[in-house]
Design a protein that fits this description.
16 helices
């Protein structure tokens, strides 16, 4: 890695190939989104999806647990690579690159995907419940500012907000911190938090407060996704903003990744324990009435859940990054291929998964078998579409910033991992 992408002290001690680990983590976070949505027709409790299939508590847990950490993990990696890209490219090139690879896909793909999702949703409701049910689908109330359906592409919109906020904050700090004392002090705080083990507690605090104070908190859903409206909800801003900001600051001191690598096992052990506690308190049964939740009837349990949920988020985040650093640091063609394809797969997956759920729900099979069939039928289609339509085309340049040659090499001048949109 060109050390010009970061300050020399920050880059020491971490070999460039270790970035393969973070690329794998980012891809894993995106692909967990496919699994997350594939569980939604099998969730126990009230119906929230277009079809209601066999209910499964196991799949309810598979919905609940990855949702604790997958998007915070993604946004931490996004912040990390954003700062690296900024220092490699410079301000103007960075802005143009983010607009091309984040804003353009959001604007270009949203109409197509929203239309496909709406059609499949109505089809699914009609197929299971009849035309009358399709006509009774509730419509959102409020202004377009509050209800605009960003769908699963909300992460692109929020990324743009975070990029803008980070650039503004960086400009302000640069203007007032001429001698770099403030930045040096922030680096020392980040280093102390990581090495002392206090980072998860400090980073979890804003999200804990936002969750506890949210009156309509659906606890089984954890941090509510900001998938509608242009003003993200407070828990999402706290959770994902803290992750993006910490990733940005962590890139200034890449040697601290070694600390996470050494502690991957205790972090994951804590993550499992905290997740089990959260699942017990919140439950994995879908309810749209917050007053019926166990913790809603006990203020102490509500406080415990609000504190433990973001702690579990950071335990998973640090544990999975450390695990990847330990075992996925070297280049691996298969992992890199999946990483390259993950952005495209996540963009297009939702209507494809929904079609499979609608087609499979009448079959007399147990929920885990149907769930496995959903993934087994959709993932190959999405991977094939990536290979045939994206990898060697202008779409590959748009999404991943480089064109892959069919003989397996990238063209001369391919951008490094640091500049892939994260």
């Amino acid at each position: 890695m060109d050390t010009r992408t970061t300050s020399a002290p920050s880059a020491r001690g971490v070999r460039s190939e270790r970035l393969h680990a973070l690329d794998a983590v980012r891809a894993g976070a995106l692909l967990l989104g496919v699994i997350f949505h594939a569980t939604m027709s099998f969730l126990p409790g009230q119906q929230v999806w277009m079809v209601r299939d066999e209910q499964s508590t196991t799949l309810g847990l598979l919905f609940f647990v990855p949702h604790i950490f997958r998007m915070s993990l993604f946004f931490l990696i996004a912040g990390f690579f954003a700062r690296m890209s900024l220092h490699r490219r410079g301000f103007g090139s960075f802005v143009r690159d983010r607009l091309k690879r984040i804003a353009v896909p959001l604007v270009a793909f949203w109409p197509i995907l929203f239309g496909a999702i709406a059609v499949v949703f109505v089809w699914g409701v009609t197929r299971q419940w009849g035309p009358e049910a399709a006509g009774a689908i509730p419509q959102p109330e409020g202004s377009i500012l509050e209800t605009f359906p960003l769908t699963h592409l909300w992460f692109l919109y929020v990324l743009l907000l975070f990029y803008a906020a980070a650039l503004a904050a960086r400009g302000l700090v640069t203007a007032i911190d001429r001698d770099s004392r403030l930045r040096g002090a922030i680096d020392k705080v980040v280093k102390a938090l990581v090495r002392s083990g206090l980072a998860p507690f400090v980073l979890a605090a804003p999200t804990a407060a936002a969750l506890y104070l949210r009156k309509d908190w659906l606890m089984w859903l954890g941090v509510p996704s900001p998938d509608h409206g242009f003003i993200p909800n407070a828990p999402a801003l706290a959770a994902f903003g803290a992750a993006f900001g910490f990733g940005w600051l962590l890139q200034r001191q890449m040697q601290e990744l070694r600390v996470l690598e050494r502690r991957w096992l205790p972090h994951l052990a804590a993550a499992f324990g905290l997740s089990a506690l959260c699942a017990w308190i919140a439950g994995v049964t879908v309810t749209l009435d917050p007053s019926t939740q166990l913790a809603a009837q006990d203020p102490t349990l509500r406080l415990i859940l609000a504190a433990c949920y973001p702690l579990a988020t950071w335990a998973w985040t640090f544990g999975l990054i450390g695990l990847a650093m330990r075992f996925l640091s070297g280049p691996n063609p298969a992992v890199r291929y999946v990483a390259d394809s993950s952005y495209w797969i996540y963009l297009i997956h939702l209507p494809i998964v929904m079609v499979a759920q609608v087609l499979l729900f009448p079959l007399p099979l147990p929920a885990p078998a149907k769930f496995a069939l959903v993934l087994a039928t959709t993932l190959p289609i999405m991977l094939l579409s990536y290979h045939l339509m994206v990898r060697h085309s202008f779409l590959g340049v748009l999404l991943n910033g480089h064109r892959r040659e069919r003989r397996g090499r990238t063209r001369e001048g391919e951008q490094t991992l640091a500049t892939v949109p994260r």
